[in-house]
Amino acid sequence: MNIRQIIIRKRSGQELDNKEIEFFVRGFTAGGIPDYAASSFLMAVYFRGMTEKETFFLTRCMMNSGEIYDLGRFGRRCVDKHSTGGVGDKVSLVCGPIVASLGVKVPMICGRGLGYTGGTVDKLESIPGFCARLTHRRFMKGLEKIGLVFSSQTGRIAPADKKIYALRDVTGTVENISLITSSIMSKKLATGAPGIVFDVKCGRGAFMKKKKEAGDLALWLVKVCRKFGRKATVLITDMDQPLGTTVGNSLEVIESVECLKGHAAPDLLDVSLRVSAEMLVLSGACRDLVAARQAARRQIENGEALRKLGEVITFQGGDTAVISEGFRGWKKARHISDIRAEKTGFIQDIDAGLIGQLACELGAGRNRLEDRIDPSAGLIFFCKKGNRVQKGETIARAFTDRRDIAEICGRLKRAVLIAEKRPVLPAMILKRITS
Length: 435
Ligand code: URA
Prior knowledge:
- The protein is α/β, with parallel strands linked by helices.
- 45% of the residues lie in helices and 16% in strands.
- It contains 17 helices and 13 strands.
- It has helices at 3-11, 18-30, 35-48, 52-63, 91-100, 120-124, 136-145, 159-171, 177-190, 211-227, 249-260, 266-282, 289-301, 304-315, 321-325, 352-362, 405-412; strands at 79-83, 106-110, 148-152, 195-202, 231-238, 246-247, 335-340, 345-350, 378-381, 388-389, 394-400, 416-419, 429-434.
- The strands form four sheets. The protein has a four-stranded mixed β-sheet, sandwiched between helices. The chain has a four-stranded antiparallel β-sheet with strand order 6-9-11-7, sandwiched between helices. A three-stranded antiparallel β-sheet has the order 10-8-12, with no helix packed on it.
- Helix 10 links the parallel strand 4 (195-202) and strand 5 (231-238).
- The structure holds uracil (URA).
- Uracil binds at residues 84, 111, 165, 174, 179-180, 183-184.
- Residues 84, 111, 165, 174, 179-180, 183-184 line the site of uracil.
């Protein structure tokens, strides 16, 4: 068997057998297949797609390329959550503590942001001292003691995915449904939660711009979960305007803390309570979504969810001053600039895609996996879609170390549309699919 033959077979649209897929995954992960051949293989998959059988097997090989965690000792009351990523998406930071504070184990494997979608690991690492690289031992200890861990994909969890994803990123082969599904699922399956709630973001600030694409991904995720004996619920949620009121790593941590103190933007609260409720139902902690949502809300009101966030920050080496003192002691951006309304009216639209791109330019995101991000960079919005604003009123504030802040803020104005009529607000939950 050789990689050239496998590439040619896939290029001509044939279904690969298990041995060929294994040959590619093992060979590339071990360094025996060079990047140029792997790129060519991925491009052939990108154009020709993969069948269900191929996708299942690719997922299995990638999952088995590293350590497999056994969470059997925690029983059914254990649930993971995954978001496909969006602008201002800090839901994991809110629902992880809520659900864990109700006695459910939450082994959250989180990613770093790429492009304009932020990653939970980047956000948490803006907390001084916070460490998301947990060994297997620390991961298990955290789950036992706190009930919640936020862990990055270390080199030991699905290393094949880590390597393949980095190559996909630079070869224009990210947007293929089989590659996306196997990438997401390989790490989720390797870390072993019996149930997973997926938040598939849909809109201009997400990977999946259209409902049809998001729906297809949702079905694939459910199918793979079923195949591997895991329970799954997928919510497709709106990502057309940034979620909540902040975009940028440390700003989003502060907003999550505020949300758990009971001061949340309605859209962030809505999605966080719904995702939490789905996690509570999937894990069997609550019997239905109404009871689960009430339970989740109670954990915010009685301070238990905030306390749980404090516990996990401490366990992972972070400074909990973020909870009591906000930004004190954190790196501050060198330049701050306000964006003001050019006329009086209603905020008609805030383009999450454009905001995400500009937040990246401010330093809040990365274009390549190895780029460094600036934790203090980002944006605060003082109004959301549907709010009335007066001419000259501050609608957003930008934070950055970059000197071209004025030019970036000039372009930011184009992302916010003001008109006379009050717009209809979108439903945040667009669809639900369960296994
Ligand atoms: N997230 C992943 O983990 N992998 C992909 O391919 C896309 C999003």
